[in-house]
Specification:
It is a single chain. The protein is of the alpha/beta class. The chain is built from six helices and twelve strands. The strands form four sheets. Strands 1, 2, 3, 4 and 5 form a five-stranded mixed beta sheet that branches. It has a three-stranded parallel beta sheet with strand order 6-9-10. Strands 7-8 form a two-stranded antiparallel ribbon. Helix 5 links the parallel strand 11 and strand 12. Helix 4 packs parallel to helix 5. It starts with 12 loop residues before the first helix and ends in a 27-residue tail after the last helix.
């Protein structure tokens, strides 16, 4: 595991267990390079990292190794950039099947480590059910207390008047949704996600509030169609056509006041 070098951070003993290289200059040579751009993998490549940043990449024969560098011979092993994952969570689904009670369980200790194990070094949480836990996880990672990826935090889900998940807030009016966005932006969340029960007026208010703060909003939709969301200014959509109701047979245009 190669972590960025932070001279101002004192890594805890727990985090040090997951750090193999943390020298001012680290050189990986003789690697099979997968550059993440879709190009064919290249053998016999060198990657030079200085103070946590990639300074140079190229053929072994052309590499100028800095004096005092930590030299790692990969001996033909593959090397690639860390994965940047944009739809991740700190929780797992844990419903009661027999009673049909939906529930989500936060896993703050294991999930950050599992993301690193899978090669993800930057993630966006894309929906929170324990926001203060997410804030603390990010803080502890940034301070070097616990190992984990760089995190961009998505606020708690923006729901409508009713929700199937007891851990989600119910926004009764568009004004509620706008206030919800502003509150969580003030807490340090950098993106938002609407959920299935949100209607058009509520979604529009949330989008406008997020954009006023120059933040992005995505959605796992149901009542609002993809086309409607796009026309309202939605930045992104999650789960592909599985969550799209644009082509649902017999779908009727909903009067928001009927909910």
């Amino acid at each position: 595991m190669q972590l960025r070098l932070f001279s101002q951070i004192k890594f805890s003993d727990e985090t040090k267990k997951y750090i193999e290289y943390n020298d001012p200059v680290t050189v990986f040579k003789n690697g099979l390079l997968i550059d993440g751009k879709g190009n064919a993998a290249k053998p016999h490549q060198t990657v030079i990292i200085s103070n946590g940043k990639i300074d140079w990449v190229g053929d072994d024969a052309k590499a100028a190794i800095p004096n005092g560098a930590k030299l790692i011979d990969l001996n033909g092993k593959a090397i690639m950039p860390g994965l940047v994952m944009l739809h991740e969570h700190m929780y797992i689904s844990a419903p009661s099947i027999e009673a049909r009670y939906l529930h989500l369980k936060q896993l703050p200790f294991s999930f950050p480590r599992l993301y690193l194990a899978a090669g993800a070094t930057t993630i966006r949480t894309c929906g929170s059910i324990e926001p203060y836990s997410d804030l603390r996880i990010k803080k502890d990672i940034d301070l070097g207390v616990f190992p984990g990826p760089n995190m961009e935090l998505t606020a708690p889900y923006i729901e409508g008047k009713s929700t199937r998940f007891p851990q989600m807030n119910e926004n009764k009016t568009p004004a509620d949704a706008a206030a919800f966005v502003n509150y969580w932006a003030d807490q340090g969340f950098t993106s938002f996600k609407s959920y299935m029960g949100v209607d058009k007026p509520t979604l529009k208010a949330a989008i406008d509030a997020a954009h006023k703060r120059k933040l992005k909003i995505t959605g796992h939709l149901d009542i609002v169609t993809y086309k409607e969301a796009a026309s309202l200014g939605m930045d992104n959509l999650e789960h592909g056509f599985m969550a799209s109701t644009d082509f649902a047979a017999g779908k009727k245009k909903m009067n928001p006041s009927s909910r």
